[in-house]
Every structure is written in structure tokens, then in C-alpha cells.
Amino acid sequence: MADLTHANLSHVNMIETNLSQANLTNAKMDFVDLTDASLTEANMTSAHLIYAMMIKTKMVRTTLTEANMTEADLTGANFDENNMLAANLSKANLTQTWMAKSNLTHANLSSATMIATNLTRANLTGAKMMGVNLPNASLYFTKMNNVDLTEANLTQAWMAETNLTYANLTEAKMISTTLTHANLIEAKMSGANLSQAILSSAQMNSVDLTDAILAEARLIGTNLTGANLSRANLTHANLTGANLAGANLDEANLTNVDLSNIDLHSAILEELEINNTNFAGTNLNNTLTLALPGNWSERNLETKLNHFNQQGSLLTSIARVLTINIMN
Fold first, then answer.
1. H or E element in which residue 322 lies
2. Which residues in the chain come in under a pLDDT of 50?
3. Which of 183, 208, 231, 289 has fewest C-beta within 10 Å?
């Protein structure tokens, strides 16, 4: 077991070096080349690895608490079951890196590149991930409560059963992201793009989705109790069996949305866009008002009022709402 505590290894070529179980506490390793090296079970607490080359490096069960890996290249590395508490990985390249079951609590991953990274069952509680690039990443059963993912790219990421309570996802890009059974209670998602995202059976109580894009999203059986969906775009979204009790839908776009049999009696329903919206069996309330164009044009007149040629016209939608209220 090599003792390299406080050693200065900056700029050293250590390709394929075996440093398993070595003690590298507080070692200076900036610009070091550890390509294909083995550091399994090594102690690298507070080590400096700025701009380090760690491509395909094996670091299973390695301790990297408070290590500084700013802008390091960790492409294809194996970091499974590591302790990376409060580590700095800002702007690092973690493309196709394996980090399953690793402890990344309060780590800094801001602006990191994490394309197809495996973070299954990792702990990212309180991590800073602003602007991180995480498309096609695996985040299944990952702990991400209180994480800051402002403006992050999570397109097509797999986040089923992930814990994102109190997470900040403001203006995050989550197109076609899978969030089945995820916990998003009180998450901040204003301005987020969730087009075609799968949110079925997710817990989204009191989530802030102001100005969010949820076009063609799947929200089957999703709990949106008390959610803020004001000005949200829900065009063609699937809300079958969703719970919208107490939700704020002020100025939401519900074009081509099926709201049949959904209880909306306690929801805020002001200034809705409801072209071709299905309210069959819906329990509504007297807050419902409809949005009208600010300026009427020939096209607006055709699409909004011509119920003979436009099955989803405003008049047709109003007729459906009136029919429901009479029946109720």
C-alpha cells in the first residue's frame, strides 16, 4: 500500500499505473495522466486533480471526499460506489462514466458533461448541477433531493423512481425524459421543457410548473395536487387519472387535452385555452373563464368561431362546458 500523502505528482505520466489502496490524501495531481490506471479503494481525500486525464480509470470504492477534479477528463471511467462527498467536478467530462451507488452529496457538478453517465442509485443530495449536460443518463432510483439543476439538459434521461423533492429544475430541458414514479414534491420547474416526458404516477404535489412546456407529456395517474400550472403548455398532454385538486391552471393551454372524469372543482381555471378539450364527466367550478385572442383576425375567426368546419372551435368547447354544467 503506497503512502503518497501530500505528494506532488502534477503533470506526471501514470498511464496504466496500479495505485489500488494507495494513500493519496492531499496529493497534488493537476494535469496528471491516469488513463487506464487502477485506483480502486485508494484514499484521495482532498486530492487536487485539476485538468487530470483519467480516461477509463478504475476507481471503484475510492475515497474522493472534497477532491478537486475541475475540468478533469473522466470519460469511460469506473467510479462505482465511490465516496465523493463535496467533491468539485465542475466542467469535468464524465461521458459514459459509471458512478452507480456513489456518494456525491453536496458535490459540485456545475456545467459538467455527463452524456450517458450511469448514476443509478447514487446519492446527489444537495449537489450543485447548474447547466450540467446529462442527456441519456441513467438516474434510476437516484437521490436528488434539494439538487440544483437550473438550466440542466436531461433530455431522454432515465429518472424513474428518482427522488427530486425540493429540487430546482428551473428552465431545465427534459424532453422525452422518463420520470415514472419519480418524487417531485415541491420541486421548482418553472420554464422547464418537459415535452413528451413520461411522468406517469409521479408525485408532483405543490410543484411549480409556471410557464413550463408539457406538450404531449404523459401524466397518467400523476399527483398534481396543489401544483402551479399557470401559463403551462399542456397541448396534447395525457392526463388520464391525474389528480389536479387545488391546482392552479390560470392561463394554461389545454388544447387537445382529455380532461374527462377529472375532478377540477377546487382548481383555478381562469383564462384557459381549451380548443378541442374534452371535459366529459369533469367536475368543474365557477372560476372557469376562457382566453380570447387580443386581436381578432380572419384566421382567429375561422379557428375560434367556425364550429361547422372546426370541431375544436371555441364555440364547440363552450358548448361542451355548458353541457357539463347543466348535467352537474
1. helix 314-327
2. 306-310, 322, 324, 326-327
3. 289
Which positions ≥6 away from 270 have C-beta within 8 Å?
249, 250, 251, 287, 288, 289
Question: What's the pLDDT tens digit per position in 42-71?
Answer: 999 999 999 999 999 999 999 999 999 999
Alpha helices in 199-313 (DSSP H): 298-305
In this structure, what is the dihedral angle of CA atoms 153, 94, 182, 178, given to the nearest 10 degrees? Answer: 60
C-alpha cell at 248: 392552479
Q: What is the pTM of this model?
A: 0.88
Partnered with residue 121 across adjacent β-strands are none
The residues near 171 (Cβ < 8 Å, ≥ 6 apart) are 150, 151, 190, 191, 192, 193
Q: Which three cell numbers stand for residue 295?
A: 386581436
Cell of 256: 387537445
- The cell for 220 is 397518467
d(CA 187, CA 171): 12
As given in the structure block, the three cell numbers for residue 104 are: 456525491
The tally of CA atoms less than 13 A away on the side-chain side of residue 181 is: 6
Q: 265: which 3 cell numbers?
A: 372543482
Cell for 95? 461521458
Adjacent-strand bridge partners of 76 = none
CA distance 295 to 293: 5
Q: Cell numbers 463535496 correspond to what residue? A: 86
Question: Residue 142: left (phi > 0), alpha (psi -120 to 50), or beta?
Answer: beta
Question: What pLDDT digit, counting tens, does each position of 255-288 carry?
Answer: 999 888 888 888 998 888 888 888 888 877 766 7
Closest CA to 248 of 191, 214, 205: 205
Nine cell digits for residue 113: 458533461
CA distance 121 to 160: 11
Q: So what's the pLDDT on residue 293? A: 59
